[in-house]
Amino acid sequence: MLNRSKSLIRPRSFRFKLMVTSIVCILLPAFITLAVYNMLTKDAVKEEAVSQAEQKLELVDGFVTNLFHYMLYIANNVQNDSEMNVILKAIAAGKTYEGPNAEYERYMDRTKITNKIDNMTVLGDKAYVTILLKDGTYFANYPLYEYNPNLFREESWFEHLNLLKGLESSWIGTTPTVFFQDKLRSPYQISMARTLRGGGVTPYGYVIVTILEDQVSSVFKKLASEQETMLLDGNGLILSHPNLERIGGEFPYASLAKQQDDPDIMRLDGENYIISAHKLPLTGWELVSLTPYKKAVFKLNAIFNRVFMFQLISFFIFLLLFVYLIGTFTRPLVRLGRVAETVQRGNLEVRSNIRGSDEIGYLGESFDHMLDRVKTMIAEITMTQARKRKAELAMLQAQINPHFLFNVLNSIRMKVMRKGDMDSAEMISSLSKLLRMTISQDKGTIPLHEEVDTIADYVKLMNMRQKEKVQLRLDLSRDTLMTAVPRFFLQPIIENALIHGLSQRAGMIHICSEATGSEIRVIVRDDGQGMDAPELEKLRQELMHSADKEDKSIDTGGKFSSIGLSNVFERMAITYGDRFSMEINSDAAGGTEITMYIPNQEARDDV
Fold this sequence. Notes:
Layout: H1 2-9, H2 14-80, H3 82-92, H4 102-121, E1 128-133, E2 138-140, E3 170-176, E4 188-197, E5 203-212, H5 214-221, E6 228-232, E7 238-240, H6 253-258, E8 265-268, E9 271-279, E10 286-292, H7 293-344, H8 359-382, H9 402-418, H10 422-439, E11 445-447, H11 448-465, E12 470-476, E13 484-486, H12 491-501, E14 507-516, E15 519-526, H13 533-544, H14 563-576, E16 581-587, E17 591-599
Parallel strand pairs: 12-14
Antiparallel strand pairs: 1-2, 1-5, 3-4, 4-5, 6-7, 6-10, 8-9, 9-10, 11-13, 14-15, 15-17, 16-17
Helix pairs in contact: 2-7, 9-10, 10-11
């Protein structure tokens, strides 16, 4: 073992140079690919996080815009209702109620105005509507003991209403709630106002629509807890916020955004935030949301990290397999070098015994023939020495013990399971079982249930190679499970079903068995692409004469390959003789069914 290690790491060894060169050629582009992948992953994560923040803010924008449109709708109705305007203009012009029905007429006018205001707000969100006339008359849809509407005239913004023209509106913003019953629930309110004009320029009244601030901030609270959303006026003052203490404070979004290199990421108090902003054209205000960047990308990073770890593990498994294969392929060269060293020390009896159809096999055979000729020439020249009997020394080949390979695969599988990658663990388990079945040559026949277990692992591995999965359905009679069958007699048939029948698409493969007297019947059925009648008949004829033909390649239009099927038929015929028979049925639209009749006998360990 020590000598083998020294030969492996020998600086001038061809094997060492080949391995190092191959590994460098693999690692260098792999590391470059991983670096580029990591960089692109960060960009993709950032873009996705920003997109999600924008989508959430768009939902908020729609709700808030609809709420403000609702306020504007109420003001438009008051201004455009002809019956209401006639009454309001008459009252503002000093209409007097006289006669025996004066009070009734006064009552009816007020009732009409009040009912119209109530009808405007009965189906929508809660809104307080106030109509003020120049003569001091007012109308409202709320109890007057809660608030005297004429107090609006004392507000600082009220005089600005006279400067409005046509359908212009004044969005007053956030002010303390004036309605007694709603102060505890919402300390702030948001109002808009519009002037009422007749045919002249001078307004005869004003309409004021008010909603509570919590009607806006309530939708902010429904977003994810880590996302902070606020409503700002044109000066950066906070009009609405889930935290009442922030209302009236300043958030200079515009000036902060200009200082940032990245318009989507803003750094506040030493932490990065994803910032999104939507302008509200109706009011000139702005919706702004802040989301901590780390929390926004946490879930996305977790997904990308799992994919990255899977690729990294797969790469190292492939690298180990590659190193193993390179070592296996170059092992004859190392062996030939050892033989040359032995000959150099004077031992002409040693032979490499390297054979094969490639260049290394030819070199080994030529080297052995050269040694034979050298020895013959020495014997002819000396003539005094007795011809020594050639002794062939059995060279120990460094082979990996199959049990060691299985143990290594199981160790890898356990590590993968501990990391939570159950799909990779299941794939390694299935591969280990197939390797064990392939390498173990001490059994010529095995029980039918072992053969079916091998096929199940084979289908699992094939499913992991292709996007669409194939379902394997087993329907085995208990009386047939211990029947001795040749190893891998089902695998070529299943492979044909996967590649030619289902064409690597999703589908069903059904294996069933049943005992019928002195024989068992094994049926393999798939629901993939079958064969039409001429192709099926051609396959049957070729299969019947396959034992007498040297060329086993049968072309059936690319839908079904009988190479593996012929091998199965010949193996079963050799094993069971005339007692074995096979039937093939297929339909171009209904799949293919292969039925095999096998003599029933107990499982045995024949070689």
